[in-house]
UniProtKB/TrEMBL annotation:
Residues 3-229 form the Alanine racemase N-terminal domain. Pyridoxal 5'-phosphate (PLP)-binding protein, which is involved in PLP homeostasis. It comes from Dyella acidisoli. It comes from the Bacteria. Signal peptide: none annotated. NCBIfam families: YggS family pyridoxal phosphate-dependent enzyme. This is Pyridoxal phosphate homeostasis protein. InterPro entries: Ala_racemase_N, PLP-binding_barrel, PyrdxlP_homeostasis. Belongs to the pyridoxal phosphate-binding protein YggS/PROSC family. The modification N6-(pyridoxal phosphate)lysine is found at residue 39.
Length: 234
């Protein structure tokens, strides 16, 4: 059962907290959007969110987008891929997604471009950059970003809009904030080299105020909107 009253309250509370973080950072709340992350939640929950006026959702598995898009056929929904993407999923992504925020390697750019050409579509993309120390984190190494952006010019179906990152899981707020600050500096350095990257997607339920303080234009929020996730036992 989805509690639509709870969902509306959560959504309003998150928007309020985001606005508050903007004011504390001296920023205009209109500069920061919220990407609701619906991963692991079923089509009924997405439908309830649609009723709240949300129509753009972050997902980390292409199979989930396929299943939900099928169940919600006829609804106008923008699906945003935020999870690690295997090259063999490029075809489904080219068909179903409105945006990919986890572009982290040329092989994937190439595969997406080929499929997008076949579909006669373009796709907004953010380059996911690794700013955390953990080995487990995906993302392009920061030092490779300038060359990567140059190479992406060969794939005109990919419209490069900005950068995305996941901060370290550290308990130390300073370390978390440093990851976000690093992404902003990279963006500014790229701008100086002629790559205009307006968007910075960074910050999740547990750390978004730091991301907003460091210049996020978009925060990706799952738990604080939809509640905690339960994963099926393998
Ligand atoms: C799950 C996920 C989020 C949202 O995380 P919450 O802590 O639930 O807000 C944000 N970004 C990515 C890449 C995710 O996989």
């Amino acid at each position: 059962m989805i509690d639509t009253v709870q969902l509306a309250a959560n959504w309003n509370a998150v928007r309020r907290r985001v606005d508050e973080a903007c004011r504390e950072a001296g920023r205009d709340p209109g500069e920061v959007s919220i990407l609701p992350v619906s991963k692991t939640f079923g089509p009924d929950v997405v439908r309830a969110a649609l009723a709240q006026g949300l129509n753009r959702f972050g997902e980390n598995k292409v199979q989930e987008i396929k299943d939900k898009a099928t169940a919600l056929a006829g609804e106008s929904i923008d699906w945003v891929v935020i999870g690690h993407l295997q090259t063999n999923k490029a075809k489904d992504v080219a068909r179903l997604a409105s945006e990919v925020q986890s572009l982290d390697r040329l092989e994937l750019a190439e595969a997406l471009h080929r499929r997008l050409e076949a579909e006669n579509r373009t796709l907004d993309v953010l380059v996911q950059v690794k700013t955390a120390r953990e080995e487990s984190k995906h993302g392009l190494p920061a030092e490779e970003l300038p060359a990567f952006l140059e190479c992406l010019r060969a794939y005109p179906t990919l419209r490069v809009k900005g950068l995305m990152t996941l901060a370290t899981l550290s308990e130390d707020p300073g370390e978390v904030r440093a990851c976000f600050g690093h992404l902003r500096e990279l963006r500014d350095r790229c701008a100086a080299e002629g790559h205009l990257l307006a968007r910075l997607s960074m910050g999740m339920s547990g750390d978004f105020p730091f991301a907003i303080a460091e210049g996020a234009t978009e925060v990706r929020i799952g738990t604080a909107i939809f509640g905690s996730r339960s994963y099926p036992v393998a």
